[in-house]
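Thread: quick sanity check before group meeting

JM: Hey all, I'm pulling together slides for Thursday and realized we never actually wrote out the predicted structure for the chain we discussed last week. Dropping the sequence here so it's in one place. If anyone has concerns about the input, flag it before I start.
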Amino acid sequence: MAIKITRHVLAGIIAHARDCSPLECCGLLAGKDDLIDEYVRTRNVRQSPVAYEIDPEEHIAARKSLRARGRSVLGAYHSHPRTSAVPSPTDITEAHYDGEFVYLIVSLELEPPDVRAYCRTGDELAAVDVDAV
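JM (edit): ok, ran it. Output follows.
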């Protein structure tokens, strides 16, 4: 499986990660059909360098706004300011959406930043290819 995501979205997510560093950033990935072409910055209510939680009020508001425009939340993203773009045990435990919901992680550990995507399969997050368009 591969996800399609615009270069504009990737650049925006990397900028968000840099803006929030040394804390983790987080947000939602949106689009239509199988293309992620929009991202929504949200507040990390944990304000942590090693964990994130999307603000529930912002999550609900973004879903309503997107739905009104005929768009959908296709995934979520967050950053790892000092570690690789591999899901932590907490990331795996707190990934609640199965199927094609995308969990995208941007790592600022090295330059250039590393961006990887995952989907939940059973009790794990399986890597999926990122196709930048």
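AS: nice. Helices lie at 7-20, 56-68, 89-93. The domain at 2-132 is CATH 3.40.140.10 (Cytidine Deaminase; domain 2).
JM: adding both to the slides.
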